[in-house]
Structure formats: C-alpha cells, structure tokens
Amino acid sequence: MTTNDIAAAHRYTAELAGEIEARWQQAWTERGSFQAPNPVGPLAGDLSGFGGHGRPAKLFIQDMFPYPSGAGLHVGHPLGFIASDVYARFHRMDGVNVLHTMGFDAFGLPAEQYAVQTGTHPRTTTEANVERYLGQIRRLGLAHDERRRVSTTDVEFYRWTQWIFLQIYGAWYDEEAGKARPIGDLIAEFDSGTRTPADGSVWADLDAASRTAVLDTYRLVYQSDSMVNWCPGLGTVLANEEVTADGRSDRGNFPVFRKRLRQWMMRITAYADRLVDDLELLDWPDKVKAMQENWIGRSRGARVSFAVAGGDAAVEVFTTRPDTLFGATYMVLAPEHTLVDEIVAHEWASGVDARWTGGAATPAAAVAAYRAGIAAKSDLERQENKDKTGVFTGAYAVNPVNGRQIPVFIADYVLLGYGTGAIMAVPAHDVRDHEFATAFGLPIVEVIGSEQGVADAAFTGDGPVVNSDFLDGKPVDEAKTAIIEWLEAHDAGTGVVQYKLRDWLFARQRYWGEPFPIVYDEAGQAHPIPEALLPVELPEVADFAPVSFDPDDADSVPSPPLAKASDWVHVELDLGDGLKSYTRDTNVMPQWAGSCWYQLRYIDPTNDETFCAPENEQYWMGRVPQVHGDNDPGGLDLYVGGVEHAVLHLLYSRFWHKVLYDLGHVSSVEPYRKLFNQGMIQAYAFTDARGVYVPAEEVVEREGGHFYQDQPVTREYGKMGKSLKNSVAPDDICRDYGADTLRVYEMSMGPLDQSRPWATKDVVGAQRFLQRVWRLVVDEETGTVRVTDDEPTEATRKALHRTIAGVREDYVALRDNTAVAKLIELTNHLTKGYPDGAPRAVVEPLLLMLAPVAPHIAEELWSVLGHSDTLARGPFPVADESLLVEDSVEIPIQVKGKVRSRVTVPADADEATVTAAALADDKIVPLLDGEPRKIIYVPGKMLNIVP
C-alpha cells in the first residue's frame, strides 16, 4: 500500500462526504433535531427554554411554495432554500424556537396536461414528482420539521382551503367599518332597517330570490359575466400570467381569445386601499412594494360623463388629468365595452374619413370585423403595439366643457379592465393618443403650454393651461381642482379615486384543482356546502382531459372535465330544508388558492378541528411590538423567494389573510412581515448554427472555441433551466463533491440578492476549504484527532472572536458569502499557524460557526472531538467584546495622492504620533524635500502629506 493510499483512507472526499451526509440526515430524523414545538395541540411542547439575552423566542421562516415539477431541481433552485436553511440553523443554534419546513403547491395545469398526454392520473404523477423533489432537497441537508409538510393536493389540506373560501363567500366589506364582516350581519341590518340595499330596493318587499340577488352584490365572492382569456385548444380559461405577450397560451402555444363568461370572482378591489397603505408596515424590498403599488394603480382624478349625441346613452371615463378636458378631440372605447353595441350607428355619415371605416360597409360591420381581428391579442400586446388601429363607431359624444361633438372610436389600446374601459383622448399630451390621432387624421389641440409645439410629438411635461377658457393660465394642480369643482357643479362629473386593480377571476375549467364547496338548486341559485360536509373531494374519473376545441374556434364554450363525472355532479343534500337535488360546480379553484394560506397550515398541520389553532397562530405570527415596533403587522418572520412572485401570489395571499383577520380567525394583519428576494443562478447556454439550444453539458471547449458534436456553437449567458438546456442537477454535484460543498459554493458565490454565474469548475474551491477544515481535526494518514489542548496565542484568540462577531452579524443579515469568507480566513490562519495541530479552544468554535452552512461535516467533526450531542441546537459561540478592541492600527500614508507606505501605531495614537511615524518612515523620507506644506489626517484611517 502506498503513502497516497494510506492518506486517501482518511481524506475528506466526495465518497466520504456522501457517507457522512446520509448518516447525519438519518440521525437528525431519528432525534427529531429540527422539530419546533407549538403552544397547544398535537405538536405542543416545552417553550420555556427559548429566547432571552436579546434573542427572540421564536422565528417562523418560510420558502416560497415550490411546484413539484417532473423535471426535478437544478442547482439554481436550492439557492434560496439553502440560504433560508442557514438562517434557520443559525438561530436554532442560538437558542431560538425555529419553525422551518417545506410543502408543495401541487395542483395545476402542468400535471394535468401530462396526465392528458400519457393517460396517467395527475395524482400519480404529482406524488411521484413530490417524492423525487423530497429526495433531492433532503440530500441537501435542509433542516425542515418533517411533521409539518403539506401538499395542496392533500384532502385534509384542501378541506381547509374550501373552508376559507366559504368564509370569504360568507362575508361582505363594510366600507364604513373599513373591514369585512359576516354576511349575516348585513342581513340583520337589512331586517332591522338600519341599512338599506344600495340599489334602492325595499328589503321587506323582496322575495327570497331577490334578497339572494341583493346579497350577492355585496359578497366578497360572487359570480359575474367577465372578460376572460379563453383558450379553445386547452379547453380552459387562463389567468393573464398564463398568456404570452403575443396572445397565446404559455403551455401548448395555442391562440387565446378574450371572451365574456360567467365566472367566480373575488372582490379584492374592496381591499385596494389597505393593500397599498399597509405596504408601509412591511420589511420588503422597495422594488416589490413599487410593483404592488403599480399593479393596484391607485390614482386620483375625475369621472366625467360624455353624453352620446342623438340618444340617451352616456360614456363614463376616468381621467387623472381632468385639467386637459378642453383638449379632448375624440373618444375611444375598449372593443369589448358593453356600450359599443348600443351606440354604433346604422350607416356612415356622408364625408366620413375613409381611414375611420376599416373598409366596411357599415359601422356595425366595421366593429364586428375589428373585434374579430383583435380577439387573440393579449392585454400586454394590445398596450405595447406601436401601430395604432381602430374603427369609428359612427357615434359622436358631447364634450361637457365646450359642447363640441367628438367622434367615438373603438381601439385595442384601450382595455376594458382599466378604469371604465373608455377614455377621452387628448392627443396633444398623451403619446398613444397622439399616435392614434396622427394615424387617423384627428385634431390635436394644445392645452398645456409648451415651447416645442405638439404637431410632431405629444408634450407630457408641466406648464400653464392654455386654450381652456376659464382654466387659462392656471398651473396644472390648480386647474385640476377648478375643473373638478366645475364638473360637480354642472352634474357632468365628480372627483374620484380609481384603481387599475380588477377583481380576481377565481375559476378554471380544469380537473386537477380544488373543487368549489358550492351546489346549485334547480333555479340555478348557488348554495354553500355546510362545513360539516367538507371536504368536497375531487372525484376519480376515467377521463380528466378538458373538452378541447379547434384552437381557432373563438366561439366555443368551455366544458369542464368535472362535468363528465355525472354521479358526482348530481347530488342529494339536506341544506336545512329537507333532502333536495342539487348540481355541483364543475369548475375548480385556480392554483393560487392553496398558496394563499399555506403558512397557516404549516403552523398546525395535523389539526382536524380548525385550520389553525388561535394560540398557535398568535405564537408564530402574532404582532410583537416590543420587538418590531408599534406598527408591527405580524406575520411570519422571513419569507424567501424569487421576485417573479412579487405581485400576484403575494397580493392574493395578503388579501386572503386580511379577510381572515377581519373575521377574527388570525391575529396578524399581514402574512409576511419580512420578504427577501434571492437572485438567480445563471449558466452558459449554447446555440448551434440554426439558433437552436444544444445540451450545455455536451459542449467541449477547444481551439479557442466551443463545439457540440464537432460543430461550432455560440455561447451566451442565460437563466438556468430546461428551455436553454443548461441545467446542472444538484444530485450530480452532491455525488461528485458532497452536499456541504454545494451549500458552501452557492452561499459563497456572491450577495444573496444578486444573480450570479454558475461554474462547476469552481466548486472544487469550496471542497478544498472543507478539506482544510477536516485536516484541522483529522490526520489524513492515521485518522487520529489532531487538535491539541494548548492555549491559543493572543493573536489567534483575537482572530477567533473577530470571526465570531463578524459571522454572527453576517448570518443575521443573510450575508452568507462574507460569513464564508471569514470562516475561510480563520481556517487558513489555523492551518498556517499550527502545522502540528490547532487548539481545541479555537477549532470547536470554528465548527459551530461552520455548522449552519456546512452542517454534515460540522456534525461529524464535532462528534470526532468527543461530543455525543448534536450541535443542531448549538450553542452558537458568542464573541468576547474585550478581544474585539484593536491594540494597534495600520495607517496608509499618501504622498501626492497615492499610498506610498503604511505605518503601524497604537490604536489610541494621536495625530502628532502618527505624523512623526510617517515622516520617519524609510519609504516616505526620500519623497520629501524639506518640511511638507500640508498634512491632512483622518483619524484611524489615513494620513495625506502634501510636499
């Protein structure tokens, strides 16, 4: 046996790392090392030993709900998972009760589409994907409380999703109280006469059906004929985020059409102000707050009524610039606007501009043709299209401020979902209006004074009002106030606050989703399922494919897969008035439903009496003003995930949580107190001569270029993923280097909130660091312990405690890259300074500090050093403050603006001492010719000499 063979037997290799990691993962599971006790219920435990000494008693840490894709993980996915795990492990070691687990957002279209293609039930596919995903994240050594895992597809989970739906359905928003209240309170107020229906009806005179109709106009969940994204090729409606910019389905690339269908809606708009205002309470990135504010789009302006000439109709518009009313020279309605069919003229007036007609014989024909032509365009495509199109309806509206008749068009750049779906067009001062007016030969009237003129481009700056009668000469803000007063005085409009936010379309024509806890009677009236009959389980069906249509058949009507389960659809129930026949709702909830509240189920996952016991929610998510300040909204303590969920998921979750708060089911105002967005891991991708991506792992570099199957390819950087064929599986890195090496590499690549490039060749650097740590404890040749009981030098003690203070601070601030750098520096200090064995008094704290980022090797070496207990619960070392004070400092000396030397002086040295040392320095003396003209000293930082 050679010397190298002997050394290899005790060296920290990938094979040894794999064995250590598997063993410690099993040990953690058997010991319940990461189980967090609750105050009450099945998971209750002793809470007395947590917190103190300035530390919080508990921390609730959560990763954004992952979808268990069949493709599995690539190394970009665990970035946030590892970071949150480091954060959780550190605080757990520091005496905090930490709740950290992970579940799965397992409903959704991908599993259903795969099931349709293969004939495999989506549950079978989903459960297999979950197991694969679990295997991958468990191999990373993530310290999760396994008892708390949930999947949205678990019947016991979606039972409570349905229950929450019923709470929202059974509530209305009381604007006077500024909160949601049970619908029963509204009925009681109608019965007593303290409140009357908003539509002016007399409650006492209404029959049961009419009363139900009135209540439905108040409910936070209601049914409405809404414009939706209908995809005949998939047989379902799609959310906006599921439609590409060119108006096609993200999955399958089928055409998507705007269509009016009766759908479930959630009245999220009732919470618009609170959703905006409460952002101030949250410790979130400013970018995310801005994205939510823009999505909600709260703006102040005026609602103005334009009477349609020759009829009784009027077009309502909302404008943030009522001061420009005198410059409105035409109007535009969204093509889907309900008023279009009412006002469209029967024939063209003589002399109408040919550009306005679209070549059609009549206005009605022009409107029909235009609607058909833009039906497949997405909202994004319509807004971004630079080529303005539209047709004249043949109708004219009257501008209320000057009595002029202006033509009414339809055009795709106006959306039904924003404002009133109609605009007054002021082409002199709006870019899109100017483009449209130019294309159609419409008047452009300047009403905000500018020196540039408005013939060639819109002027969007500020200036005095011009060409506007009684507003002339006023600044914009003053003109806005004056015109609103005029509109209100003449019953032509009113000052209002408007929002871009629309109510939430809450239904999908799919199989693989949560069934609605709703049934319909013979008259088609909706009835909620009693709580005692929950859950409404998803039925087993032989054919779970939606009824698909010709992809181009815009006139097709959805037929949900659940409609095929006739035995399930038709049911006999006693809803309190005897056994009757009902029909179940055959839509399912959107995939967002489960992720709106899953943090609450993590708290109490085995509770079958309620979705989350109040005592447990209060403990983990309640307000803690003594720690977080008087404005603390409560919520979990750290939420880590990608910025791609900045709006919809976070907005929907906040909405649900606020309803639950209003109804008294939770004590926290917000679900997520602190949010952190990790960056992306990018990797090289390669395209061949056709521009087609080729597998990155099969590309070789030679002769100054890159080749795939001996053909040259072009290299680019891109987000790691399946589409660019540049994924790297974490399983492969764990196999070749070890999970701890992967963890250290990903955490050391750079600041967590920034994107960073992946380079497999650099992973070995992290492995070598861990090998140096290993050699501090284990002799590679003999396997014996190398640490000594010698006292460390004063310099080493100071280096240790500087590292402890710095690493502790870095872990708290999620600066794991700089924490790793400090650990590497300390390891190098010990390696070089103690070739015959480093002191135990320094090595053991090093292992404790390493444990959050590289837990397996830290546990193993901790055990090798004779400790029988896991270090999963610490203790994390605490710095000796007296050793953080420097005895001396090194001061850079500048001459003529450049650093020429450095001098070491006592830390408390005054300016005269530093100056004397600098002027006597061997490198400085030759640079001076006599006494310097000027000396500038920055205490403790720098001394600058001007010769």
3D architecture notes:
- The protein is α+β, with helices and mostly antiparallel strands.
- Among the domains are: 1-31 and 763-884, Isoleucyl-tRNA Synthetase, Domain 1 (Orthogonal Bundle), CATH 1.10.730.10; 299-498, Isoleucyl-tRNA Synthetase, domain 2 (Alpha-Beta Complex); 886-946, Ubiquitin-like (UB roll) (Roll), CATH 3.10.20.
- It is built from 29 helices and 32 strands.
- Strands 8, 9, 10, 11, 12, 13 and 14 form a seven-stranded mixed sheet that branches. Strands 2-1-20-21 form a four-stranded parallel sheet, sandwiched between helices.
- The protein starts with a helix and ends with a strand.
- Mean pLDDT is 93; it is low at 1-7.
List the SSEs and their pairings:
Blueprint: H1 3-8, H2 14-31, E1 58-63, H3 78-93, E2 97-101, H4 109-118, H5 122-139, H6 155-169, E3 171-174, E4 179-182, H7 183-192, H8 208-216, E5 221-231, E6 236-238, E7 257-266, H9 272-277, H10 286-296, E8 299-308, E9 314-319, E10 330-333, H11 340-343, H12 363-374, H13 379-384, E11 391-398, E12 405-410, E13 422-425, H14 431-440, H15 476-489, E14 493-498, E15 504-505, E16 518-520, E17 526-528, H16 566-569, E18 570-574, E19 579-584, H17 592-595, H18 598-603, H19 614-621, H20 625-628, E20 638-641, H21 648-662, E21 675-677, E22 681-687, E23 693-694, E24 700-702, E25 705-708, E26 711-712, E27 714-719, H22 730-736, H23 739-748, E28 756-757, H24 763-777, H25 794-812, H26 816-833, H27 840-850, H28 855-864, E29 888-895, E30 898-906, H29 911-919, E31 934-938, E32 942-946
Parallel strand pairs: 1-2, 1-20, 10-12, 20-21, 22-28, 29-32
Antiparallel strand pairs: 3-4, 5-6, 5-7, 7-15, 8-9, 8-11, 8-14, 10-13, 11-12, 16-17, 16-19, 18-19, 22-23, 22-27, 24-25, 25-26, 29-30, 31-32
Helix pairs in contact: 2-28, 4-5, 22-23, 23-24, 24-26, 25-26, 25-27, 26-27, 27-28
